[in-house]
Fold this protein.
Amino acid sequence: MDTEPRNKQLGDLDPARIPAHVGIIMDGNGRWAQARGLSRSAGHRAGTENLRRVLQAAGEYGVRILTLYAFSTENWTRPRPEVLALMVLARTALAREIDELDRRGVQIRIIGRREALDATLRQALAAAEERTRANRALTVNIALNYGGRADIVDAVRALIASGVRPEDVDEEAIGRHLSTEGQPDPDLIIRTAGEMRLSNFLLWQAAYAEFYATPILWPDFGPEDLYQALLAYQARRRRFGGLDKPA
Ligand code: FPP
């Protein structure tokens, strides 16, 4: 039943211009919880549950890659119980959803410095990646202990370790060593909860991404809101530093 309005709306989107890669900065879980007198961890739980419907809608709208900012390299500075709650949520949500994700053809890829995550979580992440490696319906990059600057630092380290000559270091070579290697750059980055910044998300890859901010808090951000973001994206003119072509 609930797919009916979605399908009707789909008529307004140009299927040929759906952004292939969408990044989401899922902000506002804390404010969502505070407004209800709940703990911040309860907000993160609601935010995690919200992922199911957004993932499904993204696939239905034709998005190929979704990158979700789940935990940044800066998030370690939060109170320890909150950090722990986020880690436990990531592990339990993955355990609960992996069968369904796999059945729907979702490929899971983890981006971020996973060495710093605890061993149980690392194992669960590796198993999910391995199990869904051949899936092609939708790729979901989960950014965990991710930072855009760390991503670039790691790429530079890998390049140096490979013994590359300075004159062979170019944008393409750096791109090949980033965590998103093999994927197109994001076309659209959505940030919920009103803030207007990238917060160290996909810094290199976002060079020409369209940015869409909405005041809606992440646990309330649903399929209709994703639809609005895609509509707004389709109304933009992307020039990639060039000029509009004459009509
Ligand atoms: C920002 O809200 C949100 C986060 C720091 C974590 C986002 C994580 C999830 C939605 C769930 C975990 C992900 C997976 C893949 C299981 P905030 O706490 O900064 O909110 P506030 O700005 O209102 O305080």
